[in-house]
Amino acid sequence: MAAYLIRRLALVLVVVWGTATLAFFLLFLSGDPVNLLLPLDATPEVREQFRKANGFDRPVWQQYLSYMGRAVQGDLGISLRNQTPALGLVLERMPASMVLAGAALLFAVVFGVLAGVIAAVRKGTTLEFVVLFFALLGQSLPVFWLALMLILVFGLELRWLPISGYGVGPLPGLPALANLVLPAIAVGTFSMAAITRLTRGGVLRELRSDHVRTARAKGLSERVVIYKHALRNAAIPVVTVIGLQLGNLLSGAVITETIFAWPGVGRLVLTAVTQQDFPVVQAAVIVFAVLLAVINLVVDLLYGVLDPRVRYA
Fold first, then answer.
1. ABC transmembrane type-1 domain: from which residue to which, for each copy (predicted)?
2. 78 φ, ψ to 5°?
3. In CATH, what number is assigned to the domain containing residue 235?
4. Best exposed site among 49, 79, 154, 276 by fewest CB in 10 Å?
5. Among residues 96, 75, 95, 97, which one has the least CA distance to residue 86?
């Protein structure tokens, strides 16, 4: 177990290094950084001063080594617009993104697993058809369209929920629950649909297995058979998808955060791209790479908890 964990941590470091390298060279693949970061009417003197101040007058390999040396120390550059550390800006917005992703994942897991179990148990009935229809619909609807429809129906027509902003929550730093509902549903619907279909397939497969038939022969109640034996053994692929979806929810909420004026990292990155503030974009990419690598590691370790037959060689 210890050797496996060390190898996985080494792979995490490799992934983060590769992502940081890619983020660095993407800036140069886009053209001369000075032309990208300065307005078109900047004078040659200003351009030359900017080039020297940011080290763009040195060879690329020297700039890369300097960038990686600072990154190891937690220095991912200075925002060109705010003149503050780029990493600090990203980490300042990260709690809002994590709250939104967590709420969306909770919505997706609770309703997705429940709907998947119902569809598996009620196989061949109208209820299964309805669940699969909405699961397919949830994976087909564009996120931006769903977000706009939620705003139109529940925000403007019915006036049940606020349509934008973070609000003031019951605890410091947390949003108001009413402000969280619509963004979480918009972000989590696709994940809920994916979890529903995967849970249904896994539970159906387990319900036909020998150990479930043995559990029923022992006289166990159907509820115990389904949730303790069938669902638990079908949970490994579901946990894998949940881990992947959490990564997608964290890194892919740019559109939703923009539509709902949610003060998260996604909205920050979109603003940084618009303003050509590349240090902020690079910092966000590296932070998300670290989060995704850690999430994948945690998911792998959960396999042994869910299935004792899993061994880490």
1. 94-303
2. -110, 135
3. 1.10.3720.10
4. 49
5. 75
